[in-house]
Specification:
With 420 residues, the protein is an all-alpha fold. It has a domain of 113 residues. Helix content is 58%, strand content 3%. The chain is built from 21 helices and four strands. It has a two-stranded antiparallel ribbon with strand order 1-2. A two-stranded parallel ribbon has the order 3-4. A hairpin with a 2-residue loop joins strand 1 and strand 2. The longest helix has 16 residues. The protein is elongated and about 80 Å long. The N and C termini lie far apart (85 Å). The relative contact order is 0.06.
Length: 420
């Protein structure tokens, strides 16, 4: 078959109507027909997704469907063509006018096997055009012909679809997409489960988030660090620290694959509420369970001691860090400096700083979730502003502390500070 277009002649083996259509669509000079022309004949099929959202409860999967193909599946070679067709079309509706007819032509070919870049571009086109129903139709087509797809393509395509829907805050469509695959007998994997936790923690209420987690737990899903951090951030921002501790205990504090993440978050839930006795008790339980405290563990306790002006516990924690070989960071120095200056004990500051190496370069090794609960102290935030200025000699903790004290001395001359 020979296709002739203006200034272009291509020889194609007969029959390949999909690539001939693609060449004509790219090189034609007339504007493409309206989007309604392609969408009107696409009424929901008997395999369309269920209209009701997913009721989070025990899933009742059915055996997956198998599709026999007459021809041998061939790899998708249309992804570069779709990327070429989408170039220069920033508007979602325009991109969908080009992408959707191409998908209809290619999916009608029994030997066509899509790949992940092709599906990601198609999902993005549907999402930007606000046609989320078409995105679900694509997932429906993929799940009905899962036997012809490469192994692992359908879970990755589901994760890409969930990401597109979540970026547009379409939680009901996310539930419908997951309900579609569960009804076809496909189990949910850890990546999709973590995606639900992350996006529900951003867009949904805490009650809905706990409902999703309970449903994932019944599905034998173990949350990953990204999902746990997202849920913890939602609790911390709403100051639901008790519910955060309950969630962490339910996940399981004995998980060795997560390091100190669960224990640090549990200590943070007590420290941010200034429950000092519970904080000390859980720290001892952490050590007895075989976990080695890190710099985040100590800084969570030091921040609570600093805000409560508990100098004796502050010094004991610094001695413990020194014996354990934990290198202090900028947050540790901020806890010491702020606690002494708040009580107008600047002349005694040297007594605490002698336990740390003032000649090390400044760094921040503390988990960022700690700042969501406590914020950044005066020394920490000011020191980060200092570090943005370049100097002939590199910054050290000694220079940062000295510069900060001079700044405080100029702002309050009635206070006596130690001069470095």
């Amino acid at each position: 078959m020979k296709v002739k277009v203006p200034s272009l002649s291509v020889e194609l083996p007969f029959p390949q109507p999909c690539f001939a259509f693609l060449i004509i669509m790219i090189t034609r000079r007339t504007p493409p027909p309206p989007l309604l022309h392609f969408i009107v004949p696409l009424n929901p099929t008997p395999h369309s997704p269920p209209p009701s959202p997913l009721p989070f409860g025990p899933a009742k999967p059915s055996p997956p469907r198998s599709v026999s193909l007459a021809a041998t599946p061939r790899p998708s070679s249309s992804s570069p063509s779709l990327r070429h067709a989408s170039g220069g079309y920033g508007d979602g509706a325009r991109l969908l006018r080009r992408a959707w007819p191409l998908w209809l032509r290619l999916s009608a070919d029994p030997s066509f096997v899509p790949d992940l870049p092709f599906l990601s571009l198609l999902f993005s086109a549907c999402a930007h055009a606000r046609r989320f129903d078409l995105l679900l139709l694509v997932l429906d087509r993929l799940s009905s012909s899962s036997a012809a797809l490469p192994p692992g393509l359908l879970p990755r395509a589901l994760s890409a679809a969930i990401s597109c829907l979540a970026d547009h805050a379409q939680l009901p469509f996310m539930e419908r997409a997951l309900s579609l695959l569960l009804s076809r007998g496909f189990p949910i994997d850890s990546a999709a489960g973590d995606a639900f936790l992350r996006y529900y923690s951003r867009f949904a209420s805490l009650d809905d988030l706990e409902g999703v987690y309970a449903w994932l737990k019944r599905s034998r899903h173990l949350p990953r660090p990204a999902g746990i951090r997202a849920v913890a951030l939602a609790y911390v921002r709403d100051r639901e620290l008790y519910r955060l501790g309950r969630f962490l205990r339910d996940v399981g504090l004995g998980r060795k694959d997560l390091g100190n993440l669960l224990w640090n978050l549990l200590l943070l839930s007590y420290a941010a509420a200034f429950k000092m006795k519970s904080l000390q008790r859980e720290f001892l339980n952490m050590v007895r369970a075989g976990f080695c405290p890190d710099v985040t563990t100590f800084n969570v306790r030091l921040l609570a001691f600093s805000r409560m002006s508990m100098f004796w516990d502050l010094h004991l924690s610094l001695d413990h860090m020194q014996r354990a070989g934990i290198v202090p960071d900028l947050v540790t120095y901020g806890c010491v400096v702020d606690s002494y200056l708040d009580r107008r004990l600047g002349r005694n500051l040297r007594f605490a700083l002698d336990k740390m190496n003032l000649d090390d370069p400044p760094r921040v090794a503390t988990d960022s979730l700690v700042f969501e609960a406590f914020g950044k102290g005066s020394f920490h935030s000011t020191a980060e502003a200092f570090l943005e200025f370049r100097r002939n000699s590199p910054w050290t903790y000694r220079k940062v502390v000295a510069t900060y004290l001079r700044k405080q001395y100029r702002s309050d001359r009635n206070q006596i500070f130690w001069n470095y």
